[in-house]
Write a structure and sequence with these properties.
The complex is a heterodimer of chains A (151) and B (870). Chain A contains eight helices and no strands. Chain A has 151 residues and is mainly α. Chain A has two domains: 54 residues; 96 residues, Cytochrome c-like domain (Cytochrome Bc1 Complex, Chain D, domain 2). The longest helix of chain A is centred in the N-terminal third of the chain and has 24 residues. Chain B is an all-alpha fold. Chain B folds into seven domains: 36 residues; 137 residues, Orthogonal Bundle (Helix Hairpins), CATH 1.10.287.1490; 84 residues, no CATH class; 96 residues, no CATH class; 210 residues, Orthogonal Bundle (Cytochrome Bc1 Complex, Chain D, domain 2); 109 residues, Cytochrome c-like domain (Cytochrome Bc1 Complex, Chain D, domain 2), CATH 1.10.760.10; 99 residues, Cytochrome c-like domain (Cytochrome Bc1 Complex, Chain D, domain 2). In chain B, the strands form four sheets. In chain B, strands 1-2 form a two-stranded antiparallel sheet. Chain B has a two-stranded antiparallel ribbon with strand order 3-4. Chain B has a two-stranded antiparallel sheet with strand order 5-6. Chain B is extended. The termini of chain B are far apart. Chains A and B meet through helix 1, helix 3, helix 4 and helix 8 of A and helix 6 and helix 22 of B.
């Protein structure tokens, strides 16, 4: 009996560590891959499982992004949203651009989301969300937006 | 002898020495284990403290750096010098004496004011007392006394005011003498305080004792000691992302609305709140503890314990989405589930199914619905061909028909009609609800059947009658009655039956044959055994006329008393059912013996546990299994205190004795006929597919509503569009309003109203809110043209163009505003700009925080945007 419990414990531990490792390890790669969206049925199950294990802030960030941001910035974060985003001038920010994303600190991204793009001297197209979101929600968005570039 | 003695005592000494060492080691181990081994939380708290110390120290250093960088230090020394100078000046004889003198005068006055106040209070008290006696006794002498007292009060009050007035110039002069000093002191204080606060926080953190911390919930005898290790859980700043030091995710929702001091941890997370010795024990992952800790999305399952309305609840998005599966598959049809009573049948009515479908189709469907359509909701009952035939025979004979199939050879479609029907098909936007060949069906929550193969399933006569009046065949269906003419329906039927054919249909063609009484009886038994009447209406069949030839063979149909209320196990408390009561059967050794594993396995393979189980297989995907299991896990009978309960709107109405909202009058008939609530939500009734119409009367202009109903236009270019339901305008009054099955109830004068009139009237009378003003507040100091141009300037400045289109320019996220001046009421725009989320909590439009004047200007500008009628 004791033996069985130990085995179960070990199995649980192993499963947990796999979860943790997949959760942490695949976090950056995940979203950039999602953009290609050539997932087969088997892949989609794997994607679902991976999403299930995303850290909370990324999951919440993704939920918010896919409701409020993807319209302009696109599902893949490349600034080619289907709701006219692709033909806006200037085009919405491309979060998959590694060089561009490196120039932005977390604080800057936070500021743009909460006070709008005009607050850092860019166009007025991205509206201020600070009065609609809680600070923590914006934090989640910042974390999620950064995953597009794999940084 | 002596040496022998010596030897043995030496020998004993060794044993003694050995035992003492063991004792010593054991004692040391016991002390160590007691202090550290059994108190792992000490380590975590220590670690958290040092992490927090580092973070606070870092913050402090950063603040110091910023203080120096921004010249804060210089500013501080400057201020201090300034203060010293001022103090010096103040100390000069004349100034100081004057200050003392003034202060003395002021003190004197204040003392007088205090006396005055006391006197006032006393007199007022006397007045109130007298007034009380007067109201009680109505004796005039009290009235006289009251008047005198009132007089006195007035005098005292006047006196007091005079005193205060006298003190004011004194105060002014004092502040002139010391004015600079007070302000400078305050600034110095503020600068020092911001840094000292940080220092104090560090000191407080270092001083904090290492001890068991817990949330006591006395009335439920809970002591959640989780915080002993998860020391940072309540913190607003993230000290470390590492567990157990991280703060609670989305704390402003979960902890903000559920004060841990009152709710504890284990009401939501389960686990073993009192355990502190090991991680496994605390998290409940040990034998004989049946409530392992819930984490991640799974925790949302606990929302179901207290919250009646889960839809739209912040933080419960996942579980709210999952509960839709209960509705989708109609679990409540066979199982008793609290909150899902009276939901209506999940499957279509089968009373007359024999007049509707082909026999060969019925057989295929009964045997394996998922094989026929991968999206089928009906589960697989693992019927053999004989069993399926028996069930079909029963259903067909019940409808008074025999086995029959469509005659494939006889049908050649009329190309002309097909062409017309195709146009109607797209005009009525059938694809909005119905999927065909993998396309459409966007309004998923109505669960309209896939029509890809419908031409081989139903016969044309039935389809004609169905489209003409769906309520007639299936009262309570979600299919609206489109006001097509008979010719239109004919062409639509021709198009649908010719376009959507099943290639395999002909292969399964059966020659019509008589139904045998024995088969009907067998079918009845099967239906009774598997409880088909849970999802489909087969009830009250004793009323059906049995054909004479069958009657003589003893055929009877199911009576109400032959149908058990719910065929399945009650699920009210499945989420807290003791594991011992779950029958793992032959899977006892192959799956983990816990509640969640059981639920999931039951959903995956309902009959896999042992022989003789009746639950059908729904062919759920693993994702659906997980989601559904999460919901079921939330159905508990745990002793949640009543003070936690957030009843649903319905329950609240019930408690308050208020009837739930119901549509009234002719509008209710229009709704029952056109099924507006398939897409729109009105006062909490209906779906969230199309805009909420609860305040439509305050939001929309009448002329626009009329125009839109007559000819639905595209408001959101890339989003869903409203189907043209063929509502009559004011011109054709006779045609409207009534579902045919309700003819007798209809009053004569009502037939004079068109359904559009009924809708518009109801919107304007019922669906309004005082929150939305009819008109804008008026601004007088700016001319109207100026207001409009200022509004336009704001529109351009805020980048509205990114989401809204005016003319040909702009985004498609929000509605097109080219004609908004004809569509919306100004009061609505005004209120909407104040708080966009007020009327739709998940609206994409952010809150801009406009001032009232800005909102007025913007509204005035938007109201000028009008398209002239073509």
């Amino acid at each position: 009996m004791q033996n069985k419990i130990t085995i179960r414990k070990t199995a649980l531990l192993a499963a947990l560590s796999v979860l943790v490792i997949t959760g942490c390890g695949k976090k950056p790669g995940n979203s950039s891959k999602a953009g290609n969206s050539k997932a087969t049925a088997a892949d989609s199950a794997a994607v679902a499982a991976r999403e299930e294990n995303l850290p909370f802030d990324l999951k919440e960030g993704k939920r918010l992004y896919n409701h409020y941001c993807y319209e302009c910035h696109g599902d893949a974060g490349d600034g080619s949203g289907q709701y006219y985003g692709f033909s806006l001038t200037p085009q919405p920010a491309n979060f998959t651009d590694k060089a561009f994303m490196k120039t932005l600190s977390d604080e800057t991204i936070f500021k743009v989301i909460s006070e709008g793009s005009a607050s850092i001297g860019r166009s007025n197209m991205c509206p201020p969300w600070g009065k609609s979101f809680d600070k923590e929600e914006i934090d989640c968005l910042v974390s999620y937006v950064k995953t597009f570039s794999g940084n | 002898m002596a040496s022998e003695n010596q030897n043995s005592s030496k020998y004993r000494a060794y044993i003694f020495a050995g035992l003492s060492i063991i004792l010593l080691v054991l004692s040391a181990w016991v002390i160590w284990d007691d202090e550290f081994g059994l108190r792992p939380w000490k380590h975590y708290q220590q670690e958290y403290k040092s992490l927090k110390h580092d973070k606070l120290e870092k913050d402090y250093q950063a603040a110091m750096l910023e203080f120096r960088r921004s010249g804060g230090a210089r500013r501080l020394s400057m201020l201090e010098a300034q203060l010293a100078k001022a103090e010096e000046a103040f100390k000069q004889k004349g100034v100081h004496d004057r200050y003392v003198q003034l202060n003395a005068q002021l003190d004197d006055l204040h003392a007088k004011i205090a006396v005055n106040q006391k006197e006032l209070q006393m007199t007022r008290g006397q007045y109130l007392e007298t007034e009380y006696y007067f109201t009680k006794t109505q004796k005039p002498e009290y009235k006289v006394k009251m008047d005198a007292l009132q007089h006195q009060i007035d005098a005292i009050d006047k006196n007091g005011k005079a005193l205060v007035a006298k003190s004011e110039p004194l105060q002014l002069e004092i502040s002139k003498l010391t004015g600079g000093m007070a302000e400078v002191r305050a600034e110095i204080e503020a600068i020092k305080k911001s840094l000292e606060d940080k220092k104090e926080m560090i000191a407080n953190n270092d001083k904090a004792p290492i001890e068991i911390k817990q949330y006591m919930i006395k009335d439920t005898d809970k002591a959640d000691r989780c915080v002993s290790c998860h020391a940072g859980i309540e913190s607003k700043v993230q000290v470390s992302k590492k567990e157990p030091y991280a703060k609670h995710p989305l704390g402003f929702v979960y902890l903000g609305n559920h004060d841990p001091g009152k709710f504890g941890c284990t009401f939501c997370h389960r686990g073993q709140g009192r355990a502190t010795t090991t991680i496994e024990k605390a998290h409940g992952n040990v034998k004989h503890w049946e409530e392992p800790m819930l984490r991640g999305d799974m925790t949302q399952t606990s929302c179901l314990n207290c919250h009646g309305d889960i839809k739209g609840l912040r933080g419960a998005e996942k579980i709210a989405g999952n509960t839709e599966l209960i509705r989708k598959y109609g679990c409540y049809s066979c199982h008793k589930i609290p909150g899902y009573e009276g939901m209506g049948d999940v499957g279509p009515e089968l009373t007359n199914v024999g007049t509707k479908v082909n026999y060969s189709w019925a057989l295929r469907w009964l045997m394996d619905p998922k094989k026929y359509f991968s999206t089928a909701r009906m589960p697989k009952f693992f019927f053999t061909k004989d069993q399926a035939e028996a069930v079909a025979d029963y259903l067909f004979s019940m409808s008074g028909t025999t086995r029959h199939d469509v005659d494939y050879a006889a049908s050649t479609p009329n190309a002309d009609l097909v062409e017309k029907g195709k146009a109607l098909w797209s005009q009525a936007r059938c694809n909005l609800c119905h999927m065909t060949n993998g396309k459409g069906g966007n309004n998923v929550k109505v669960y309209a059947p896939d029509l890809s193969k419908v031409g081989s399933k139903v016969n044309k006569t039935w389809m004609f009658n169905w489209i003409k009046d769906p309520n007639k065949y299936f009262p309570g269906t979600k299919m609206p009655r489109f006001r097509f003419t008979d010719e239109e329906i004919n062409s639509l039927v021709e198009y649908i039956t010719s376009e959507y054919q099943d290639d395999e249909g002909e292969m399964n063609y059966t020659t019509p044959s008589e139904i045998k009484a024995a088969s009907i009886k067998k079918g009845k038994d099967i239906i009774q055994q598997y409880g088909c009447y849970g999802c489909h209406k087969i009830q009250g069949m004793e009323m059906v006329q049995v054909a004479p030839s069958l009657k003589s063979q003893g055929v009877t149909f199911l009576r109400s008393d032959e149908m058990r209320e719910k065929i399945g196990t009650e699920l009210s408390s499945i989420g807290s059912k003791p594991v011992d009561l779950l029958d793992f059967g032959k899977l006892k050794n192959s799956i983990s013996n816990d509640r969640l594993s059981y639920i999931k396995q039951k959903l995956r393979d309902p009959r896999g546990f042992r022989l003789g189980l009746r639950m059908p297989n729904f062919g759920l995907s693993e994702k659906e299994v997980n989601e559904l299991a999460a919901v079921l896990y939330g159905f508990t009978d745990s002793n949640v205190p009543v003070r936690f309960m957030v009843p649903s709107r319905q329950e609240l109405d019930k408690m308050a004795g208020v009837p739930s909202y119901k549509f009234t009058g002719d509008f209710a008939k229009v709704i029952a006929d056109v099924k507006c609530t398939n897409c729109h939500s009105i006062k909490g009734i209906g779906a969230d597919y199309a805009p909420d119409l609860t305040y439509a009367g305050s939001k929309l202009q009448e002329s626009w509503i009329r125009g839109f109903l007559a000819n639905p236009d595209v408001i959101r270019p890339l989003l869903q569009q409203m189907p043209k339901l063929g509502l009559t305008g004011g011109v054709k009054p006779a045609k409207i309003t009534m579902p045919k099955f309700n003819l007798g109830v209809q009053k004569v004068e009502d037939t004079n109203r068109s359904d559009v009139d009924v809708v518009v009237n109801y919107l304007q009378q019922e669906l309004v809110t005082p929150d939305i003003p009819k008109n804008l507040p008026v601004v007088t100091d700016v001319t109207t043209p100026d207001q409009i141009s200022l509004g336009k300037k704001l529109y351009d400045q805020k980048g509205c163009v990114a989401c809204h289109q005016i003319g040909s320019d702009g985004g498609a996220v929000g509605p097109n505003l080219s004609n908004v001046g004809n569509r919306l009421m100004p009061g609505f725009i005004f209120k909407h700009l104040e708080n966009s989320r007020k009327f739709k909590p998940d609206i994409v439009e952010p809150n801009y925080g406009f001032t009232e004047r800005e909102r007025i200007f913007l509204t005035n500008y938007l109201m000028t945007l009008k398209l002239t009628a073509k």
